Write the structure tokens for this entry.
Amino acid sequence: MNNGSRVILIEIGGEKMSEWVPVVGLILGAIGTVTGIISMYIHWKRFQMEKPKITVELIDCDHRFVSEEERERGVHWKIELAPKFRIANVGDRGTTFSKYEVSFKINADQYSSSQDKPVYHKKVEEHSTVDIKPLIYSYEETIKEQGSIECIFTLYHTHGKETVKGVSSWVL
């Protein structure tokens, strides 16, 4: 049964092998490599496009101090910060905010605190905007600063963290 095609056989070490088999293997290997590289590039670009794109704005922030009556009962001055954030996610993937940190200076002394209670975990869906008012930050100190306090807030979410600066106003 000869259909007109010729296959050249080469004998190597006592075994017969056709000469076109290594060439076909080389071509298939190159196609597989190129396909794999293209697939990795597509997945990387998709990951970059689908991650959340977050902007955080500090809408309002007030602070107050424990009353004089509480001070007389032995309670130190307690600074309570009440920040309110507007968080916009214009990305294609949602994220959950789970921890809030704040730091500020009063009279050259640096203070910081964090809040990560589950009740304040907030999911921000893709292409949405939400307002978050986490639990009030408290500091027990003997300093009573009645002016404005410059604060730096760091908000941690599933895919990273966002930092925003603001000024807290003193309220009675």
